[in-house]
Design brief:
Length: 174
């Protein structure tokens, strides 16, 4: 049996945001053969080219040598589901973000926010403690990730606390 870890990069990278990761590799994965597999489970499948670790979100980028290199974009953030009103309007994403103290904050971002700039889109996450790395086009890459990430979980948006129209569910916000 062969060793399925990537030990191709030196311990000390040229840039502080490029780190050596011992990535489990599989024969096939969502990003293609021999590339890191996306985290599965509560976060759903991540879009190709991105992966999530405990310390944050990484994107595979081509190095000067033409090899795929994992680059850390930001601290831990995950889209946990899509949301809309019961009538099918006001679509958005339900996103969890972890602050530097390890606390998880839930943010609902409207779908219409994706039509603006990445800086405007990410402002609520920065306010909750998201740390964005100083790498080329990090904000744009995070915005693209959030827009493409579509987990199967669905949430119903409500204007106020109380029983929903069907009188079987209680609307609340954590």
């Amino acid at each position: 049996m062969s060793d399925n870890t990537d030990n191709s990069r030196p311990e000390n990278s040229e840039k502080s945001n490029v780190v050596l990761l011992h990535i489990a590799r599989g024969p096939t994965g969502p990003a293609g053969p021999d590339l890191p597999r996306a985290v599965e489970g509560e976060t759903g499948d991540l879009p190709g080219g991105y992966f999530l670790r405990e310390e944050g979100v990484y994107q595979l980028r081509a190095s000067k040598e033409g090899e795929e290199t994992p680059v850390r974009l930001c601290s831990w953030i995950t889209v946990i589901g899509l949301c809309s009103r019961k009538d099918g309007t006001q679509w958005g994403r339900v996103v969890d973000v972890r602050d530097p103290d390890g606390n998880v904050h839930r943010v609902v971002i409207d779908e219409t926010e994706f039509s603006g700039s990445p800086a405007h889109l990410l402002r609520p996450f920065l306010d909750k403690g998201l740390v964005i790395e100083s790498v080329d086009k990090a904000m744009q890459s995070i915005a693209l990730l959030l827009q493409a990430w579509r987990p199967k979980n669905r949430f119903t948006r409500a204007d106020q606390l109380g029983w929903t129209d069907d009188s079987r569910s209680w609307a609340r916000w954590p």
